[in-house]
C-alpha cells in the first residue's frame, strides 16, 4: 500500500494541513493539500499546498519568497489532518502570513464589558505591498 493511501482525504480529495514552526512551536498557518501536493512536499522537503481559490498547486513562497522548509510530516490519530514541522524562510523572523505577519493566527479575541472583538496581537513585519508585486 502507498503511504498516501493511509490519509483520509475528504470528498474533494483534500486534507487539512497545519504548518508549525519547528524551533518555536508557533502555529504558522492552516491550508489544504491534495495527494499531489503532499507527494511533492515529501519529495522536495518544501511545503506545497493546494489552493482551493485558484484550483492549483501552490508552492509556498512562490511569489513572496517565504518558503517553508519541511523537516517532519505527521498525521493525527484519525489520519485526517497533516502537521508539517517547518522552518519559515525568506525573512527574519519568518513571515508565513500574506498580511506580512509571522503567523496567520495573529488575531486574539478581546473580551470586555463593552463586548467582544478581535484585535491584532502580532505586528506586521513587512508591508504586504512590498512582498507581492
Shape: globular
Point out poorly predicted stretches: none
Strand-residue proportion: 35-45%
What would you say the CATH architecture is?
Answer: Roll
Helix content: 10-25%
Count the DSSP helices.
2
Biggest beta sheet summary = 4 strands, mixed
Domains counted in the coordinates: how many?
1
The CATH C-level name is Alpha Beta
What structural class do the secondary elements suggest? mainly beta
Kindly, what is the distance between the CA atoms of the first and last residues, rounded to a whole number of angstroms? 43 Å
The succession of helices and strands, N to C, reads EEHEEEEEEH
- Rg from Cα: 16 Å
The name CATH uses for the topology is Ubiquitin-like (UB roll)
The CATH superfamily bears the name: Phosphoribosyl-AMP cyclohydrolase
Q: Which whole number gives the mean pLDDT?
A: 94
